[in-house]
Amino acid sequence: MKVAVKSFRKYVFISIIFVFLLGIYAATQSELLDVDEIEVVITGGNEISSDEVVTLSGISLSQSMISVDSREAESEILKNSWVDEVEVRKDWPDNVLIWVSLRAAFAHVVTIEGNFATVDINGIVLKSSRMDSSSNLVTLLAEKLPVPGAKVEGVQMLLEAAKSITPDLQKWVKIISPTANGVRVELDDSVFVDLGAHQDFTNSISDLKAVLGQVELTCIQSIDVSIQDNPVVKRDNSRC
Questions:
Q1: Considering only CA atoms, which of 138, 197, 202 is closest in space to residue 172?
Q2: Number of neighbours of residue 40 by Cβ within 10 angstroms
Q3: pLDDT tens-digit profile of 53-71?
């Protein structure tokens, strides 16, 4: 009798597990738990579209909600160099929310070999392409360029200098280059400006603007504003 009771309990236990697993399988296959809507919110620009984000995520309509891997989707979306941050969240029972923050173009970077790229404010390469003169971005000189999504090495001080350049001064700037003593800016008419080596170039740029407000640029050969409040101007009267 005891053997029969034990066998019956074992049978009931196995049956319960089977029914439970069958219920889970049925739930995953049910249309009630399918993805019916994918909502995409993009901030910071329009370089990629909502459709592109969905494609990158690998999530599709009618896919089982349970099979949606948020972390995997985030990892795939981040492979796009324009994407700075991303969050993928399931909104049960049938909605997936994707929030994307994009990087903004800050500067062009060029190498001596003539390779071009557009980078963000941190030096991350957004795209490799020829320089767009209509974009009104400053241009930096770098030794080499990595692939999109990677950071350009050796341009951090150039980026800091570019951050301090005001819009009214930017129209004069042709290129920002590294030197043994820091940063050099080439202005129109081949006027070279030594900014020095600083973590913040605000004072150097202020001194430069003060100099440009008092002289004719065509008469200037070079300007040194590496020492605060002590600009050195070299004139070339033959150029006037």
A1: 138
A2: 19
A3: 999 999 999 899 999 999 9
Question: Where does the pLDDT of residue 15 fall: very low under 50, low under 70, confident under 90, or very high at 90 and above?
Answer: low
Q: Which of 102, 117, 140 is the last residue of a domain?
A: 102
The answer to whether the CB of 104 falls within 8 A of the CB of 96 is no
The total number of structural domains in the chain stands at 3
Q: What is the CATH number of the domain that holds 38?
A: 3.10.20.310
The terminus-to-terminus CA distance of the chain in angstroms comes to: 117
Domain final residue pick, 153, 187, 215? 153
Q: Which domain holds residue 89?
A: 33-102
Q: What is the pLDDT of residues 110-124, one digit of tens each?
A: 999 999 999 999 999
Q: Which of 167, 222, 227, 182 is nearest to 203 (CA)?
A: 227
Residue 1 vs residues 6, 11, 15: alpha-carbon distances, Å: 9, 15, 21
In 3-137, DSSP assigns E strands to 37-43, 83-91, 95-102, 107-110, 116-119, 125-127
pLDDT digits (tens, 9 = 90+) for 25-36: 444 444 557 999
How many residues in the chain?
240
Average pLDDT for the chain: 87
Distance (Å, rounded) from C-alpha 123 to C-alpha 118?
A: 9
Clarify whether residues 135 and 159 are in a common domain: no
